[in-house]
Amino acid sequence: MRAYVLEADWDPRPGHRLSPEEVRTRKAIVASRVWRHPRLRVQEVPDPTCGPGEVVVRVRATGICGSDVHCVQVDAGGWMRFSGPVRLPVVLGHEYAGEVVEVGPGVRGLVPGDCVAAEGMLYCGTCEACRRGRPNQCPHLEMVGFSSPGAFAEKVSVHERHCWKVDGLPDRYGDRGLGLEVAALVEPLACAYNGLFVGTSGVPPGSHVAVWGCGPIGLGAILLARAAGAASIVAFDPSLPRLRLATALGADRALDPRDLARLGIAPAEAVREATGGWGADVQVEAAGDAQATLPEIERAFAPGGRMVYLGRTGAEAPVGLDTLVSRGAGIAGSRGHAGGGCFPAVIRLIQHGRIDPSPMITARYGFDAVPEALTRAGALEDGKIVVSQI
């Protein structure tokens, strides 16, 4: 079958010390410190097969994630921009939906023809973190498209425990193709759900919410916060198309920080003005630009406010701890979407019409145009770009 395979040079940055585990497994814990000169090309690879408990899924739709883009982008020295764990070579892509075409021995809940969306966090299920309900922190975690074969391919194999049926979504939209494209959005929406409702204390009805960054994760947070009963949502992004999407999906105000700067207004001041001086009860950092956003987030905290960090960056950022003390505020990190009921909750919200993420899809590309889709996604103007094989 055809698949887009990512390769790069194992070339640790000067002064970076590899752990013994990284040397043994060739999996860089922080890819941007190790992998250099990434290359993506379409190749013929063996068809996936089913082991015990596994299914083969014919991929119908795959979303372009910012992490995919960062895997092919480089810094001034040629090192990969993605700051998560990566083992190469690997088939790229992790936000996908499709049809089950083959089932392995022991599969109980799926049959050929079922439409599924699949988690990309392949937790072991037996370590203490998994058994304590922390599958996204599994020390044996493999990640689809980064250290395990991904979905910019014709087919992918996956254990059934990571699959969730989405047969109701084509029915919901009255269009099988659109339904499967929306199903590919379940993964990024589930990441936002995990951050808002599993990793932190949620969005109590009547909360003031600020979302920093209106890419797919930020847009998903807006959808979910509105569905949860947020009193107001203020969103920030430098892209006018994304600001328009933010408004369409439920933000009360969508602001470009550069426009505010020209007026001499800091983003935190805009949050306070929008909330009658109170500040934001819940804040979402989805920009992956903590050096720029965290100082404003600190100033925008309501008493007892909470911020969840969903962006990724290899850079460190200053945090004013005294602000957290004086305001009784908190910052939490959140990775992934496994466990916590994230996938089934998002699927139900879509199927029952509580959220409609379909406007997030602003561009579609065929399988042969994956490189062009990644280039377009790097411009940071779209909601969600989908690669369709329908």
* CATH fold call of the largest domain: Quinone Oxidoreductase, Chain A, domain 1
Largest beta sheet, briefly? 7 strands, mixed
Low-confidence stretches: none
End-to-end span in angstroms? 16 Å
Helical residue percent?
25-40%
Count of alpha and pi helical runs: 14
Text of the CATH class of the largest domain: Alpha Beta
Identify the quaternary structure here: single chain
Write the CATH homologous superfamily of the largest domain: Medium-chain alcohol dehydrogenases, catalytic domain
Radius of gyration: 20 Å
Tell me, what's the shape?
A: globular
**Total beta strand runs:** 20
Query: What structural class do the secondary elements suggest?
Result: alpha/beta
Short structural description:
With 390 residues, this protein is α/β, with parallel strands linked by helices. It has helices spanning 20-25, 66-72, 128-131, 168-173, 176-183, 186-198, 216-228, 240-248, 257-262, 267-274, 290-300, 321-327, 342-351, 370-377; strands at residues 2-10, 27-28, 35-44, 54-63, 86-87, 90-91, 95-103, 115-118, 121-122, 142-143, 155-159, 163-165, 208-212, 232-236, 253-255, 280-285, 301-309, 330-333, 361-366, 384-388. Strands 4, 7, 8, 11, 12, 19 and 20 form a seven-stranded mixed β-sheet that branches. Strands 15-14-13-16-17-18 form a six-stranded parallel β-sheet, with helices on both faces.
